[in-house]
């Protein structure tokens, strides 16, 4: 999303994870305690090494060596138990938080209006749910525990180094300072490159999802080579972005390693001279080198963890930008209607457009509707007719509050829909689209979208009314049959009838039909027309109509052209009087005569 490039990132981009971690504070506290025990036992090994060298070897006493070995085994067992406990607790929290975060992102995406999805690719949002949350999961399972554990080791190591040799410890701390400063400087660059890399991965996800969903069109037009070439270009851009990230991170790690091992070599040289002069025992030098190695390992691990934090910061920025995005609908957070208001809307379901103008966000300078006014009384059937691009589908979009008008009023039962919660508005509408959305779940679950709490009997009854029951019963698992992605296992007519059954099950007072019978064969069309006629009885119905038979039976015809209402009336009133309607009706008559 472009927002990640323009918004001001907070100093701690992962801070939004803390509220999600808070419910699991007891598990985290247990993991932290186990981590402290594991770190303490590791540090204890160094002191044991000093005892062995100074006492066991110096005194040639096997008993001391035996006791030291037993102590070492006890420490190792304690370390193993602490590590097991830490991994169990931390991974459990990580998996739970990742699941919570994915749910939060998905839930938030469903609150956004279509204007957002016009502007940003769906595949990029899928990348946020999958790839970005996985990066953040690694923060909890790997980066955060590494940072905490090695911070404890660093602190404990410095204390023990001071106990063994305060003067040599100053040398170690000087090296640590030289390492930390570049980490802070390059960390910002690593984070920026990481965010760029993740954006390119999002581009690949978006294009891949889009083309795979339209694979039949790609193959039908022989566009495979071009699609592969474009995808390859995106993959190459992703590779280049990833290599820029890897390059700067590799330099940072190499710098840290060079500084650390140079420091260890220098310490061996200084310490060796002190042992030779008697200023330090061999055991003390062994312990000092052990702790210095731990210190260097901790600094290196912290450097890599900081680099990973920077990468996670890129993912966090992308997710934060998405979660901060709100719906552009006016009064989108309006309170839900009281039950008495719901009843009123369902009882008197008239629809009024009054001087409505609207432009799509992607085409702000082009009016899709310009001063549109019409009224449909409760119980009426109104047909919207006009050439392609006249504004018919836009009327349906606005009525469902997928977008809000730039000016004018839209009312249902006398109530301005801008004062209503969008979910309430949509609750009073049943919609059957020309190309209905069918999801990769069972037939029954697809129908039950219209009424999630519907019983099996209600689902079956709706399917029977939509003339879908017969073909459903011929399917392998009947109503439990999975229909495939986007209903790929169904014919066009079967998908349309399931969508009609869904609308029938919802039983809303206002029907929006976008040529609901367009994909049906002649025999099924007659039966479904009968079902729709029964469903439309006593309800307000708006139909995007192309067929003359549908138009002629409407109580009211609204003729649209270039976003304007050209005329309103019945077929009898308009035919021969309105030139556009007469032309459109004439084309249908010619087509019918030609078919005959």
Fold and architecture overview:
The chain is built from 21 helices and ten strands. The two termini are 54 Å apart. Helices cover 66% and strands 9% of the residues. With 596 residues, the chain is an alpha/beta fold. The longest helix is centred in the middle third of the chain and has 54 residues. The radius of gyration is 35 Å and the shape is elongated. It folds into two domains: 322 residues, Up-down Bundle (ABC transporter transmembrane region fold), CATH 1.20.1560; 148 residues, P-loop containing nucleotide triphosphate hydrolases (Rossmann fold, 3-Layer(aba) Sandwich), CATH 3.40.50.300. The strands form two sheets. A six-stranded mixed β-sheet has the order 6-7-8-3-9-10, sandwiched between helices. Strands 2-1-4-5 form a four-stranded antiparallel β-sheet, covered by helices on one side. Helix 6 runs antiparallel to helix 7. The N terminus and C terminus are likely disordered.
Pick out its properties:
Rossmann fold, 66% helix, 4-stranded antiparallel sheet, ABC transporter transmembrane region fold, 6-stranded mixed sheet, disordered N terminus, 596 residues, alpha/beta, disordered C terminus, elongated
In short:
By secondary structure, the chain is α/β, with parallel strands linked by helices. Helix content is 66%, strand content 9%.
What are the SSEs and their pairings?
Layout: H1 3-6, H2 17-21, H3 25-59, H4 62-109, H5 114-119, H6 122-164, H7 166-213, H8 215-220, H9 224-277, H10 282-324, H11 339-347, E1 351-358, E2 369-376, E3 381-385, H12 392-399, E4 407-412, E5 415-416, H13 422-427, E6 429-432, H14 443-448, H15 456-465, H16 469-473, H17 492-506, E7 510-514, H18 522-536, E8 540-544, H19 548-552, E9 556-561, E10 564-569, H20 571-574, H21 579-595
Parallel strand pairs: 3-8, 3-9, 6-7, 7-8
Antiparallel strand pairs: 1-2, 1-4, 4-5, 9-10
Helix pairs in contact: 3-4, 3-6, 3-10, 4-6, 6-7, 6-10, 7-9, 7-10, 9-10, 15-17
């Amino acid at each position: 999303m472009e927002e990640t490039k323009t918004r001001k990132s907070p100093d701690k981009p992962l801070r939004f994870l803390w509220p999600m971690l808070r419910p699991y504070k007891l598990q985290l506290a247990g993991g932290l305690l186990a981590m402290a025990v594991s770190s303490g036992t590791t540090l204890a090994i160094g002191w044991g090494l000093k005892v062995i060298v100074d006492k066991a070897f110096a005194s040639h006493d096997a008993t001391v060596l035996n006791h030291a070995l037993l102590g070492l085994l006890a420490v190792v067992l304690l370390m193993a138990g602490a590590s097991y406990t830490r991994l169990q607790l931390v991974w459990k929290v990580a998996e739970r938080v990742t699941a919570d975060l994915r749910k939060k992102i998905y839930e938030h995406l469903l609150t956004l209006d279509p204007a957002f999805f016009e502007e940003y690719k769906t595949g990029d949002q899928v990348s946020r749910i999958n790839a970005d949350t996985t990066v953040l999961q690694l923060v909890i399972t790997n980066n955060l525990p590494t940072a905490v554990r090695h911070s404890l080791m660093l602190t404990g190591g410095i204390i023990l180094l001071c106990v063994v040799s305060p003067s040599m410890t100053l040398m170690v701390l000087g090296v640590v300072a030289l390492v930390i400063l570049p980490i802070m400087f390059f960390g910002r660059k690593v984070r920026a490159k990481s965010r760029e890399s993740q954006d390119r991965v999002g581009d690949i996800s978006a294009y891949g999802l889009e083309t795979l969903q339209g694979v039949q069109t790609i193959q039908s037009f022989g566009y495979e080579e071009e699609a592969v070439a474009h995808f390859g270009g995106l993959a190459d851009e992703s590779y280049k972005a990833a290599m820029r990230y890897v390059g700067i991170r590799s330099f940072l790690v190499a710098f840290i390693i060079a500084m650390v091992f140079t420091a260890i070599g220098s310490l061996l040289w200084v310490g060796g001279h002190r042992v030779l002069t008697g200023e330090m025992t061999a055991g003390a030098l062994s312990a000092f080198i052990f702790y210095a190695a731990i210190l260097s390992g901790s600094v290196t691990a912290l450097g890599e963890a900081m680099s990973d934090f920077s990468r996670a910061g890129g993912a966090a920025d992308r997710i934060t930008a998405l979660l901060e995005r709100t719906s552009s609908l006016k009064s989108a957070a309006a309170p839900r209607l009281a039950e008495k208001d719901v009843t009123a809307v369902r009882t008197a379901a008239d629809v009024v457009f009054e001087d409505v103008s609207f432009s799509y966000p992607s085409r702000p300078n082009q009016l899709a509707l310009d001063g549109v006014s019409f009224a449909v009384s409760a119980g009426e059937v109104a047909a919207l007719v006009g050439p392609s691009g006249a504004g018919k589908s836009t009327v349906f979009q606005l009525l469902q509050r997928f977008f809000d008008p730039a000016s004018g009023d839209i009312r249902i039962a006398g109530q301005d829909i801008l004062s209503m919660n969008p979910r309430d508005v949509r609750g009073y509408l049943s919609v059957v689209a020309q190309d209905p959305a069918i999801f990769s779940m069972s037939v029954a679950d697809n129908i039950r979208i219209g009424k999630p709490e519907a019983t099996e009997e209600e689902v079956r009854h709706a399917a029977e009314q939509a003339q879908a029951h017969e073909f459903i019963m011929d399917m392998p698992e009947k109503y439990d049959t999975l229909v495939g992605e986007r209903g790929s296992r169904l014919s066009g007519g079967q998908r349309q009838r399931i969508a009609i059954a869904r609308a029938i099950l919802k039983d809303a007072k206002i029907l929006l039909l976008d040529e609901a019978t367009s994909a049906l064969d002649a025999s099924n069309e007659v039966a479904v027309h009968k079902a729709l006629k029964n469903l439309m009885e006593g309800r307000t119905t708006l139909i995007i109509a192309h067929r003359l038979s549908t138009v002629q039976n409407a109580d009211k015809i609204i003729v649209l052209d270039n976003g304007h209402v050209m005329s309103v009336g019945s077929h009898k009133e308009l035919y021969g009087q309105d030139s556009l309607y007469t032309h459109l009706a004439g084309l249908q008559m010619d087509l019918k005569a030609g078919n005959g």
